[in-house]
């Protein structure tokens, strides 16, 4: 019997959770930069059906001793993940963050309660996976937080200049994801496994396990040219704000953006004379192994 497969990266829910702007935790482990750690996300399998989805904090320095951390974000995660990030955020002279919102809106919690379709999808995923939403887990009113993203009107204008709108952008993303899964069959999951997870008493853990294995492919897929507004134009704005902060004398900065933005963000940092000096990993999703343990045979 032929198994039916679902390309999860095609699923709008997962795309919105992972790459769209945000309209007991094991300690982070620091490591020297290695060629095997080029990405900004990774899945570490634990047992048969458990594991950890981790995001990176990559540190770059220039010859003036100025430091910039690229902090890869996942927009729904364990609450302990956001607690860990909040502690590190206090150490920066300035923390640049993504949020497609009017200027000043991020400083008011009420303004961040978006009713957009993206926000509603992300909150639905949060409930299904028993996770916390980024805009609820992070306090954006901190004095060192600096908005470094497009406003909604700027995003619409950038899309219009390229003959796009939000619908066509989503459509391009879905087409790209289908092409990616054809090239990489592992970026798919059996439909039966998804249905079984939905019916399981351990639904959240099993769905997290299925989704976590797919997320690395999203990072690669989203770096393509068709997503130049979603990724590159917003990154360009973030770098403009970074340049302003560096010119103002800030020497220890962080950029908190979705993981899909980071490969292009890294290229822009390298072009500014920064070089990678280290990387540490933080557990975003801790997924317990829900596989049944084999029963012991009774002695006769």
Describe the protein.
The chain is of the alpha/beta class and 300 residues long. It has one domain (5-287). The chain has helices spanning 12-18, 79-89, 117-129, 134-137, 152-161, 166-183, 191-199, 203-212, 215-221, 228-247, 262-271, and strands at residues 5-6, 29-31, 41-46, 50-61, 67-73, 76-77, 94-97, 132-133, 145-147, 189-190, 252-258, 275-287. The strands form three sheets. Strands 2, 3, 4, 5, 7, 9, 11 and 12 form an eight-stranded mixed sheet that branches. A hairpin with a 5-residue loop joins β4 and β5. α7 packs antiparallel against α8 (203-212). The protein starts with a strand and ends in a 13-residue tail after the last strand. Residues 1-19, 23-36 and 294-298 have low confidence and may be disordered.
Q: What sequence of helices (H) and strands (E) makes up the elements? A: EHEEEEEHEHEHEHHEHHHHEHE
> How would you describe the oligomerization state of the chains in this entry?
single chain
Q: How far apart are the termini? A: 39 Å
Can you give the helix content as a percent range? 25-40%
Which ranges are low-confidence, i.e. pLDDT below 50, for 5 or more consecutive residues?
Answer: 1-19, 23-36, 294-298
β-sheet strand percentage:
15-25%
How many distinct domains?
1
* Largest sheet properties: 8 strands, mixed
Structural class of the helices, strands and pairings?
alpha/beta
Shape: globular
Question: How many strand elements?
Answer: 12
User: What is the helix tally?
Assistant: 11
Mean pLDDT: 76
As a whole number of angstroms, the C-alpha radius of gyration is 20 Å
